[in-house]
Each structure stands twice: as structure tokens, then as C-alpha cells.
């Protein structure tokens, strides 16, 4: 009966499985934001509990039937899981549900593919995309199962063609890594030039949609793209900032936002971008103060910083979006300290949108950067390096279901 009902293109059913881990997003709020950012329309949400993933269908046959009925009822064309699926689970679910099935990893890759602008960003996304596809040959190339070996040859169906596809992807990964290494070398040269100029380097880090780009624009009067959506910024932008109180210039970089369960392929692929954080003298850890889950988001950021080796870099906490808080939630003081991993870290509350608290931040940056001979005037508070080069986006991963 479901085949007779036309599906709504882009309509998606969101599915989350609670395995008893802390901070499970039972409302699938973040997955819904990811889906919308990727251009999909969530039409239904389903959360269930399991002790462990089902080896074949991840959720078990009974729950799979429930998802199928839900997708048919809302005429959904896609089902998105909040966890990573194995290639076999993804293939089995598609056959069981008769709709396209994707996981959280694919959704994040789709968004990154749509948003990458710079040459380096495109290479990084392409590398992560190829690494993801290399594990999905069993699903992406399922049409090859209809092929057989030559006359008198016994073996798996489509075996030779699959091996060719695997080799092609492996060679593409190798070429992309080589091209990315050249870009990383160029970025390293730029970084060494800044070090020779005795520049104090600051990197903005934080959970996606915490307002890093808005704060970046407020500090340096830049026009970096900022929007109320996930992963609005993918490419690193670095500019000079003149701090009058310290009578010196500093270098400040806006970096890609972090997110829960960020695919390891993306962490590896974005080493060059995240290297700005590793080499920084100070990290501005931007936090969305209006988000009730900010403690969990801060923990995720700390986890990624530890993974890339930036956990030892001094931090300054910036609790942004003060204007979005109710008056009863406003702090007594805009500047105080907060304990992170047993260390007292300076904290400033501000609103990048209204400007409240921004002068306090500039004063604190001047204090931490120290004084230096004037090498720049406020009028020269201009762009050092903007990674966006207007080359367009790379094609997104094709959302197509295997037969």
C-alpha cells in the first residue's frame, strides 16, 4: 500500500535510540536542526530504548515496522537516525522500510559539503566524504550484485567491479590527502610569519551555533557569515585586532563549530583548520548561555580540544547571547570565574548582537595579551587572511536509495 502513496521529497522521520548513555536527546532537537540545515523537513520523531543495537536492523524488527508505518503515514521519503549505522544496518533498514535511510554522520557530511567555500575547506570535506563512502561500498554499489564474473569464473557477484570501485576511492583519498598536505604547508608558513611578528594568537572555539562568528564580527567589525543555524561557518577566517588598552595588535581566528558525535573522519580531515586552536596563545570558548544544555555542549568542546591536543591552551569563557536570557536569569556580575576540570577559568557574559559586555572582553584580552610596542593603528585593523575564496561548493553527497 505504501508504494501507492506518493512520498514528500525531503520529508524525514527522525529516529533516536536511548542505550542508557547520559544526556540522550529524547526530543531529537539537535537532529531536527541538523536535518533542517541540510534542507530536509522533519515530519515525525520517534525515540525508543534498547540495551544494545540490533546487529541487523539497529532497532529490532518490531520497532522497524513501527518506523515503516510512521514513514508511510507522513509520506516521508527519508528516515534519519541520530546514531551512526553500519553499512549492513543501513542496507537492511532500507530494504525493510522501503525508504532511504541515513545516519547522523551522513547528515553532518551533507551539511559540510553544502557549506564549504574555500579550497582548503572543500578538500577537507571531500576527504571525509571519501572516507565515509569507502565503508559504504556494500550499500552504495548494491546494483553490482546483479553482475557476475566471466564465463567459468566462480566468485562473489560483482566482485571485480567492487574491487575496482574500492581502488578508485582509495586513489582519490591518496590524491586528496596530498593536495591537503600542500595547503597545510602553506597555512604553516603563514602561521610562522605571524610568530616572527610576535603576534598574540587567539582562536574562537565552541559548540556550533554558539555565536562565534557574530562575536568575531563584533570584535573586528568584519562581515564573516553569521546565521542562527548549525555550522554557519566552516572555513577559518583570521584577522588583526587592535587592543588599545595593551597598545598592541593580536591575531584572532574564527573556526568551525564542534558538535556531539562529530565524525572522526571530519576531525581528522579538519586537522589543518583546528590547528589554529592548537597553536593559539588563548582560546575564546564561546558558550550559548541561553541553551539549557550548555554544560553538555561545553563538555563536548573540551573533549574535541583534548583529542586535537589543544586542551592545555589557556581559555577564556565567553557566555554569549545574554540578550536571549530572561531578566531573572541574568548574572549578578558580567565577569567572574568558572571551574573547568579543577581549574578556575575567567568568564565574561556578553551579547555579540547588542554589544553588552564586549568592552569587558576587549579589556580582558588586552590584559591577557600583555603590552607590546605599537606596530598597528586602529585604522589598520584589517583583514590578515580570509579563507573564503568564492569558489562555490562541492556537490553534496547524493541522497539515493539502493535498489
TrEMBL record:
Gene3D superfamilies: 6.10.250.2860, GTPase HflX, N-terminal domain (3.40.50.11060), P-loop containing nucleotide triphosphate hydrolases (3.40.50.300)
Record keyword Ribonucleoprotein present: no
InterPro entries documented for this protein: G_HFLX_dom, GTP-bd, GTP-bd_M, GTPase_HflX, GTPase_HflX_N, GTPase_HflX_N_sf, P-loop_NTPase
Biological role stated in the UniProt entry: GTPase that associates with the 50S ribosomal subunit and may have a role during protein synthesis or ribosome biogenesis.
Source taxon at top rank: Bacteria
Gene name of the record: hflX
Domain Hflx-type G: 200-373
Cofactors (names): Mg(2+)
Binding-site positions, Mg(2+): 213, 233
Family per similarity comment: Belongs to the TRAFAC class OBG-HflX-like GTPase superfamily. HflX GTPase family.
UniProt-annotated location(s): Cytoplasm
CDD domains: HflX
GO molecular function: GTP binding; GTPase activity; metal ion binding; ribosome binding
Residues holding GTP: 206-213, 231-235, 254-257, 320-323, 351-353
Positions of the UniProt region annotated as Disordered: 368-403
Keywords, sorted A to Z: Cytoplasm, GTP-binding, Magnesium, Metal-binding, Nucleotide-binding
GO CC annotations, alphabetized: cytoplasm
Protein name: GTPase HflX
Phylogenetic classification of the source organism: Bacteria, Pseudomonadati, Pseudomonadota, Betaproteobacteria, Burkholderiales
Organism for this UniProt entry: Variovorax gossypii
Amino acid at each position: 500500500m505504501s508504494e501507492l502513496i506518493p512520498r514528500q521529497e525531503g520529508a524525514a522521520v527522525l529516529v533516536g535510540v536511548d542505550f542508557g548513555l547520559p544526556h540522550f536527546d529524547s526530543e531529537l532537537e539537535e537532529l531536527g536542526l541538523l536535518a533542517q540545515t541540510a534542507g530536509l523537513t522533519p515530519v515525525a520523531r520517534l525515540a525508543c530504548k534498547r540495551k544494545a543495537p540490533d546487529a541487523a536492523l539497529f532497532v529490532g524488527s518490531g520497532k522497524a515496522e513501527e518506523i515503516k508505518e510512521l514513514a508511510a503515514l507522513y509520506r516521508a521519503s527519508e528516515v534519519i537516525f541520530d546514531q551512526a549505522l553500519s553499512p549492513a544496518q543501513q542496507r537492511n533498514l532500507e530494504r525493510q522500510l522501503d525508504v532511504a535511510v541515513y545516519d547522523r554522520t551522513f547528515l553532518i557530511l551533507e551539511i559540510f559539503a553544502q557549506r564549504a567555500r574555500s579550497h582548503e575547506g572543500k578538500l577537507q570535506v571531500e576527504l571525509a566524504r571519501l572516507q565515509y563512502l569507502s565503508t559504504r561500498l556494500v550499500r552504495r554499489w548494491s546494483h553490482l550484485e546483479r553482475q557476475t564474473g566471466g564465463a567459468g569464473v566462480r566468485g562473489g557477484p560483482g566482485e571485480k567491479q567492487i574491487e575496482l570501485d574500492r581502488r578508485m576511492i582509495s586513489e582519490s583519498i591518496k590524491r586528496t590527502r596530498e593536495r591537503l598536505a600542500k595547503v597545510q604547508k602553506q597555512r604553516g608558513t603563514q602561521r610562522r610569519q605571524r610568530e616572527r611578528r610576535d603576534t598574540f594568537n587567539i582562536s574562537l572555539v565552541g559548540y556550533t551555533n554558539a555565536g562565534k562568528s557574530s562575536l568575531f564580527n563584533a570584535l573586528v567589525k568584519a562581515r564573516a557569515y553569521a546565521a542562527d543555524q548549525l555550522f554557519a561557518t566552516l572555513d577559518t577566517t583570521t584577522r588583526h585586532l587592535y587592543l588599545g588598552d595593551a597598545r598592541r595588535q593580536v591575531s584572532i581566528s574564527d573556526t568551525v563549530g564542534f558538535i556531539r558525535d562529530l565524525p572522526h573522519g571530519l576531525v581528522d580531515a579538519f586537522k589543518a583548520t583546528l590547528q589554529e586552536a592548537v597553536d593559539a596563545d588563548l582560546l575564546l570558548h564561546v558558550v550559548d548561555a541561553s541553551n539549557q544544555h550548555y554544560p553538555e555542549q561545553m563538555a563536548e568542546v573540551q573533549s574535541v580540544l583534548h583529542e586535537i591536543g589543544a586542551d592545555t591552551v589557556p581559555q577564556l569563557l565567553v557566555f554569549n547571547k545574554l540578550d536571549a536570557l530572561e531578566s531573572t536569569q541574568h548574572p549578578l556580575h558580567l565577569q567572574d570565574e568558572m571551574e573547568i576540570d579543577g581549574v578556575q577559568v575567567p568568564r565574561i557574559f556578553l551579547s555579540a548582537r547588542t554589544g553588552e559586555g564586549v568592552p569587558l572582553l576587549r579589556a580582558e584580552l588586552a590584559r591577557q595579551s600583555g603590552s607590546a610596542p605599537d606596530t598597528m593603528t586602529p585604522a589598520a585593523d584589517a583583514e590578515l587572511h580570509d579563507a573564503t575564496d568564492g569558489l562555490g561548493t562541492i556537490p553534496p553527497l547524493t541522497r539515493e536509495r539502493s535498489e
